[in-house]
Design a protein that fits this description.
By secondary structure, the protein is an all-alpha fold. The protein has a domain at about 50-135: Flavocytochrome C3, Chain A, domain 2 (Orthogonal Bundle), CATH 1.10.1130. Helices cover about 25% and strands about 0% of the residues. The chain contains three helices and no strands. It has helices spanning about 1-30, 85-90, 95. It is elongated and about 90 Å long.
Length: about 150
């Protein structure tokens, strides 16, 4: 009796696996993405955005938006030992390079205390500031700039 039960269980398991495998192969032909494209179709090619060459800053779109970087930073080193941005944007050198100086907010610790150097949590500039780009919006939207910035 145990042998018959074991054989029946093995037969059912094999049939179930075979049905799942063949069912999956047939279903793959009908699977579509949310856009209605077959999942087998390659992604459409899109043109990569280009960082804008040195140019006037793009206006901010909302209050407290970090300013965009109006120049290329491809070869800039920003590591725990060195920050290339500070060559031009430090308080001691910004006038020499006609650059924007680092904001006072970058010299405060978590409790709001004043620091003599940039806070470690504000040291890696590209966490918040990004280079300006000529990228087109990924989707259409109706975003409008903040009233106070118009």
């Amino acid at each position: 009796m145990k042998r018959q039960t074991r054989n029946l269980a093995m037969t059912l398991a094999a049939a179930l696996c075979l049905g799942v495998l063949t069912g999956t192969a047939g279903a793959a032909d009908t699977v579509r993405s949310l856009r209605g494209v077959s999942v087998e179709a390659p992604e459409p090619a899109t043109e990569a955005p280009h960082n804008r060459a040195d140019s006037p800053p793009i206006a901010r779109d909302y209050v407290q938006q970090p300013p965009l970087i109006p120049h290329k930073i491809d070869s800039y080193e920003i590591s725990k030992n060195f920050n290339k941005c500070m060559d031009c944007h430090s308080w001691s050198r910004y006038q020499e390079f006609n650059a924007t100086k680092v904001s006072l907010t970058h010299f405060k610790d978590r409790e709001g205390g004043e620091l003599s150097n940039i806070s470690p949590r504000r040291y890696f500039c590209t966490q918040c500031h990004i280079p300006q780009s000529d990228a087109k919006p990924l989707v259409e939207n109706t975003f409008k700039r903040a009233d106070g910035l118009r």
